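> forwarded from #structure-qc
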């Protein structure tokens, strides 16, 4: 898909246009090398004219906080800045349906007591993964990891074997092909959203920690030299360096370099910039976590940034100030960021401890 112009929206003078490019796929790997020099030259907001809708990219953490936190949740009588235009929880318009779906998710399946009750599922998945790692590592075959098993148990209440996992993959492919005829099956859509959202991002983040061995000594001090072959969930609170590694991994290598696209419902002034109605807004997550004004030597991996209670005190939700936003921010922050963090700590710690 081509885009016909690129410009910077300013409230007062008219938009500044650059020469069009011939074509561009809408992927972060292709967009980021183009956007970085443009942001350096033009400022914190850049607009790509992709087809009929402008796509706006925000790289400034203060503007992101203003849009997502300060103006993303105003009283009903004030202009609403952020919303999206699809279905299910993540992309639906802000309104009664969105509030109901999200409230049901957070108060039921993501309720802290409910999350704790699925500890047996995490232990079952951990045992299976370790067994598979050991068997396949000896054979030299690649290890296929199905992190979403634990999410399937939470959503459907069933433990699945490997064949059923493959069946689910086939069903999902079929679902995508038949999506138009299945839109009435909202429960299926919601389960699909919950499972997929918690699988790819967790696996991507876990991949950056699974080979880290710098916190192995800390784990050994907590677990001891006994016969305990598992880093239990209750041990995690006593592993500050592990938590620091997780946070630094999310900062330096966020699972997604953009959060889900947002849109405005009408023309909005954000600082000195005009955001036109129906424009797609993208927040550059990686750039915000690499801001040298916040992080010294931002491109280096330094878990020590979060040690000495820094990890416990750090506001990853960005409610006070956005320093990084791997889970988004504001009303549409990932509702399962606590569950994702638990999975990263639990499976990451046990991977380090075992291997």
């Amino acid at each position: 898909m081509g885009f016909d112009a690129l410009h910077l929206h300013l409230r007062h003078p008219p938009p500044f246009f650059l020469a069009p490019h011939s074509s561009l796929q809408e992927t972060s790997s292709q967009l980021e090398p183009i956007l970085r020099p443009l942001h350096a030259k033009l400022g914190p907001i850049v607009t790509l004219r992709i087809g009929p809708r402008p796509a706006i990219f925000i790289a400034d953490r203060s503007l992101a906080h203003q849009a997502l936190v300060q103006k993303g949740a105003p009283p009903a009588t004030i202009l609403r800045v952020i919303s999206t235009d699809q279905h299910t929880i993540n992309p639906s318009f802000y309104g009664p349906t969105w509030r109901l779906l999200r409230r049901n998710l957070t108060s039921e399946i993501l309720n802290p007591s409910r999350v704790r009750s699925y500890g047996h599922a995490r232990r079952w998945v951990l045992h299976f993964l370790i067994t598979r790692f050991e068997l396949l590592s000896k054979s030299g075959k690649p290890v296929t990891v199905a992190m979403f098993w634990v999410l399937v148990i939470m959503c459907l209440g069933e433990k699945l074997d490997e064949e059923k996992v493959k069946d689910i993959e086939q069903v999902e492919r079929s679902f995508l092909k038949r999506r138009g005829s299945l839109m009435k099956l909202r429960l299926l859509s919601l389960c699909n959203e919950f499972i997929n959202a918690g699988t790819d991002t967790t696996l991507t983040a876990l991949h950056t920690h699974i080979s880290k061995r710098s916190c192995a000594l800390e784990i050994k001090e907590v677990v001891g030299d006994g016969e305990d072959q598992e880093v239990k969930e209750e041990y995690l609170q006593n592993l500050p360096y592990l938590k620091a590694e997780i946070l630094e991994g999310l900062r330096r290598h966020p699972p997604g370099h953009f959060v889900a696209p947002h849109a405005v419902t009408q023309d909005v002034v954000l600082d000195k910039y005009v955001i036109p109605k129906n424009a797609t807004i993208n927040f550059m997550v990686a750039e915000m976590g690499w801001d040298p004004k916040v992080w010294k030597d931002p491109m280096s991996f330094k878990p020590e940034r979060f040690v000495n209670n820094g990890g416990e005190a750090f506001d990853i939700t960005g409610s006070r100030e956005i320093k990084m936003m791997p889970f988004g921010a504001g009303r549409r922050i990932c509702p399962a960021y606590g569950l994702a963090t638990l999975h990263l700590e639990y499976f990451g710690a046990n991977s380090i401890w075992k291997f």
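QC bot note: Residues 186-207 form the longest helix (22 residues). Residues 126 and 347 are 7 Å apart (CA to CA).
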